[in-house]
Amino acid sequence: MKRQSVDENHANPWKVWKELGRPRFPDKESVETLKEAAIPKLSTAKQKKEADGYLKLSITLTKNEVTLIELRAIVYETQTYEGLDDSLITSYSS
C-alpha cells in the first residue's frame, strides 16, 4: 500500500509561505523551498491480507487531510536470489 497525504502539516506551501514572512516577491531560494514544501507526504505499509476477494483498510485522516491510496499486488522475489540473507547486514533487525 502506498499513501500520499496532504494536510495542514505536510505538502502545505501556504503554511511555509506564512512562516517565510508572507513575501510579496519570493526570491529563488524561497520559491525552491515552497516547491519542496508542496511535495505530498509518502508512506508505505506492509502487505495486507485479503478475505474473500476484499481488502479492508482502516485509516485515520488528520484535520483537512486529503489522501491518495494506491494498492498493487506484490510478488516476493527474495527466494529467487541465492545467498540473500538480511541477517548478514550489520545493524539489521527485522
Automatic annotation (TrEMBL):
An example molecular function term from Gene Ontology annotations: hydrolase activity, acting on glycosyl bonds
InterPro entries xref list: GH39_cat
Residues of the Glycosyl hydrolases family 39 N-terminal catalytic domain: 5-54
Pfam family, one: Glyco_hydro_39
Keyword Cell membrane listed: no
The UniProt record lists the keyword Hydrolase: yes
SUPFAM superfamilies for the chain: Glycosyl hydrolase domain
Keyword field: Glycosidase, Hydrolase
Domain of life: Bacteria
Protein name in UniProt: Glycosyl hydrolases family 39 N-terminal catalytic domain-containing protein
Species in which this protein is naturally found: Niallia alba
